[in-house]
Design a protein that fits this description.
Shape of chain A: globular
CATH superfamily of chain A: START domain
Number of domains of chain A: 1
Structural class of chain A: alpha+beta
Radius of gyration of chain A: 14 Å
CATH architecture of chain A: 2-Layer Sandwich
Strand order of the largest sheet of chain A: 1-7-6-5-4-3-2
Number of strands of chain A: 7
Oligomer: homodimer
Helix content of chain A: 10-25%
Order of helices and strands of chain A: EHHEEEEEEH
């Protein structure tokens, strides 16, 4: 099954700060979307909202300072049952995030779009970790395309 | 075999301008790297250079206004024999690029890095098409990680 994968890294943050940014509701609002509800604990559902709805994820794994995994239980049909994994590593001085959105059934055009969009938000996450300011949804519209119009 | 895929789109360019940006040496310097030599014709080799070397691609296909395809013949070992495809579409008012870097043998960490790096350059290509200013290599160092240090 095809996957979307990405990697960012910076010396200007800690493993703890990166883990907070991908595991806590407050952290996620800084770089993906400001409209998030639910609770980040294993078995709970987190709801992410954009202009026209958005996905719900069940929290599958929370391994402190190492890994966060979710499963999509509602959202775009191509996303249902796909998983998102955030794996955190320390490589020399750099704190690294390996991101994977896996379990896509086909390499459809929407997957091409989502790959670039994830890249955009994750580069924003790196910016947030370095400067305190990310690029969550709604802040800089149409950086990728007008897909969501 | 795993692939890196991306999609950008904008109403603020033409199919001709996008094709020029991915098919001509001058066009490629605006968004990937300024250090390019060789000739963009089928069967020729184009050399892309960064701080520590860079890949050589054989031009496999040049289908005006529609497609550009290259094969990596020298460069990072994970890239050898991989192909890069640029496919151009018109969707309603939007001029769209579907990008694919295909034929990777394994989803190694370098592939994660390259996926995000391609996203960064392609978002810069969209910016170039809209504003005349892209983000080619060397302009904004370390937007992704310090992988290349």
């Amino acid at each position: 099954m095809p996957n979307i994968i990405h990697r960012i890294g910076t010396e200007k943050t800690t493993v703890q700060q990166l883990y907070n940014a991908v595991s806590s509701i407050g952290g996620l609002t800084n770089w993906w979307t400001k409209n998030i509800s639910g609770e980040s604990k294993v078995g709970s559902i987190i709801q992410f909202r954009f202009s026209k709805g958005g996905p719900d994820f069940e929290v599958i794994d929370l391994n402190p300072l190492k890994k966060v995994e979710w499963k999509c239980v509602q959202g775009p049909k191509e996303w249902i049952d796909t998983h998102i994994e955030f794996n955190i590593l320390k490589e020399n001085e750099e704190t690294v995030l390996l991101f994977k959105h896996c379990g896509w059934r086909e390499e459809v055009e929407f997957m091409y779009h989502c790959s670039t969009q994830w890249g955009y938000f994750l580069i924003g996450l790196r910016k947030f970790l370095e400067t305190g300011e990310g690029t969550p949804y709604g802040k800089n519209p149409e950086q990728i395309s007008n897909w969501s119009k």
